Amino acid sequence: MNPEDIKQRIRAGLPGCDVTVSGDGSHFEAIVVGDVFDGLTAVKRQQLVYGTINELITSGALHALTIKSYTPAEWATASKLQISS
User: Fold this and answer.
1) 49: three-class secondary structure by DSSP
2) Fewer beta carbons below 10 Å: N end or C end of the chain?
3) What angle do CA 42, 47, 48 make, to 5 degrees?
4) Considering Cα of 83, then 24, then 58, then 36, what sign does the dihedral take?
């Protein structure tokens, strides 16, 4: 499993989102930015992202994924504050 595979799965499941994935082996971190998160709780946001990669988790190919999800406005603020992880 590599970051690009995870990135492509998330992008396919959440079209229009900007996705960055880092990590190696079976532990990864994803930053997902999109309008789809507007008005959603943190739990609902994670559920959306996990839904795109659930098959990888179930199969054991992906052991752990830390998710940070933002709306574009939230990301603009976080970026200015240099909160990138």
Assistant:
1) helix
2) C
3) 100
4) positive
Which sign does the torsion angle of CA 63, 68, 70, 75 carry? negative
Write the class of the CATH domain 3-80.
alpha beta
Q: Is the pLDDT of residue 15 over 60?
A: yes
pTM of the predicted protein model:
0.89
- With pLDDT > 70 as the criterion, what percentage of the chain qualifies? 94
Instruction: Identify the helix (H) or strand (E) that includes residue 58.
Output: helix 42-59
Q: Name the residue among 7, 10, 6, 3 with its Cα closest to residue 52.
A: 10
